[in-house]
Amino acid sequence: MKVSIIGAGNVGATCAQFIAMKGIVSEIVLLDIAEGLAAGKAMDLAQSMPALGFDTIIHPEVSDYSKVANSEVVVVTSGQPRKPGMSREELVAVNVSIVESVVKNAMKHAPNAVFVIVTNPLDTMTLVALKASGLPKNKIIGMGAMLDSNRFRYFLSQKLQKPINEIEAMVIGGHGDTTMIPVKELATYKGIPISELLTDEVFDEVIKETMVGGATLTKHLGTSAWYGPGAAVAELVDAIVNDKKKLLPNSVYLEGEFGIEGICIGVPCIIGKNGVEKIIQIKLTDADLVKLNASAKAINEVNGLI
Ligand code: APR
After folding, report:
1. Cα–Cα nearest to 97, from 82, 119, 114, 118
2. pTM above 0.90, yes or no
3. Is 220 labeled as catalytic in the residue annotation?
4. What CA–CA distance (Å, rounded) separates 83 from 224?
5. Which residue CA neighbors atom 7 of ligand 1 most closely?
6. Segments making up each domain of the chain, as ranges
7. 2-143 domain in CATH 3.40.50.720?
8. Is 65 close to ligand 1, i.e. is its CB under 6 Å away?
9. What distance in angstroms lies between residue 57's CA and the mean position of ligand 1's atoms?
């Protein structure tokens, strides 16, 4: 089993680390145009393997896409991250051409792979990848809502003072500070609706914290986050290569589901060896449907820039 990661920066290298630490593939290709970066990170990661007890082989590459051949999954993390004060949408101009060229190059050698897109603005870059690849829509998955859902679980666990793994929660919609929709009705602690445990006021505070969760980290770090994204990508890759049929929210191309068409946006999906095996059309409240439509409209506006 082989996974290729294009972009060996903060997010790409952390994806490689967590995928290796899950022991789910035998080989990882880490490719980056910056001379020496993939080589250094691959070597450093390989030297962590004995202590961790894994033996995943990590191949560094600069430009030779033939090494990507036979990958089950290609993860795209190449492109600029945001700086403090920036929105993800502001990255569109610089990242479109990067994602387009990377996907076209990878397609020449791994036309059967499932592509996982991480570059921002996520929902627009997922559409760019879909068009550049010419692949069927099930093979292109944008990873944003999984990360947002994990951030939602984090802020809920902080407020409730309960273990994060006993909390279930889901975010759908766009992967943007104003476009994501943390779904109140789906948030539970050990099966108990969290709306029974928090006041509306506190719950709304958690939702606000979740929506700017990435921006808060960017302010602290001076650049965007990597552990959360890397871990979510590793879970997604595991679901694909091991055909786990996991229910995970991801940005996928819609053709009428939830009344939306022609864009990629975060919705609950079953993820397995074919990528998106099924889109789960959960019943949303009228308020959340209004938010989802507004989110789709905002994504459409950014898509208009490509
Ligand atoms: N081919 C291969 N690699 C490229 C290309 C390209 N055409 N263009 C840029 N890169 C590489 C850069 O050399 C850099 O090493 O992409 C890497 C990006 O790494 P970082 O700058 O550390 O950015 P990172 O924090 O990893 O974020 C990458 O993921 O979460 C999103 O918003 C984030 O869009 C950003 C992306």
Report:
1. 119
2. yes
3. no
4. 7
5. 98
6. 2-143
7. yes
8. no
9. 22
